[in-house]
Amino acid sequence: MWKQDSFLVLVGFRASFRTIIIDRAPPLAVELMAMSPRVLVIILGLSLVLLAWIGLLSAGVPTLYCPMPTMTVLPAFALSRLNLQSTAVLVPMILFFLWNPGLLVRQQSNLPKRTIGLVGLLSVLTILDFVLEWKYGLQYQGAHHTIAVYIINVLWLAVLWWAVVRAWRRPSFGANLLSHWVLFAWLAWYAFPYLGELP
Q1: Are 62 and 195 in contact (CB under 8 A)?
Q2: pTM to 2 decimals?
Q3: pLDDT tens digits for 11-52?
Q4: Per-residue 3-state assignment (H helix, E strand, C coil) for 164-193
Q5: Would you say 173 and 107 are in contact if contact means Cβ atoms under 8 Å apart?
Q6: Which residues contact 67 (CB under 8 A, 6 or more apart)?
Q7: Phi/psi of residue 64, each to 5°?
Q8: Are 55 and 189 in contact (CB under 8 A)?
């Protein structure tokens, strides 16, 4: 009798626990898996605005978490004459949607060849930027900041290349989306950091 009652209580508890926890508040991973691919692309595209804000505006001066990347710094400088420098944080999101519209329209699984070319070009330009900006970084931001920013950029590039190679070898919508999101997240937050004297 005791085993049967315990079993019924346990089954009742599990059923009510499932109703309370799973049916009413599914985990984030379950929600993301059930989400429409278009909605996921839109959410990830919009998340680039937050990363761009952190990279450009969160500190007001170059720091390790706010390196002031070129993709947002140059538009911010240009828009500052109109007092619209804050809108520069929209640039990475807009370019994300324009670069590969197949993600949003067709949930494209194949990585475009132009993306591989862009990542290769950006890798070479990053090395060139390191060489040309090293002196200014040491002079204005210091050795610790300059070395740390360079190491963080190398880590970003390693993750980006991993995502691109993975998407190229095993094409899928998820791999394509991940590689493009990592690319534009890096450009929005950390690529080509501002090293030197602020105007």
Answers
A1: yes
A2: 0.81
A3: 444 444 444 444 454 555 555 556 788 999 999 999 999 999
A4: HHHHHHCCCHHHHHHHHHHHHHHHHHCCCE
A5: yes
A6: 55, 149, 152, 189, 190, 193, 194
A7: -65, -35
A8: yes
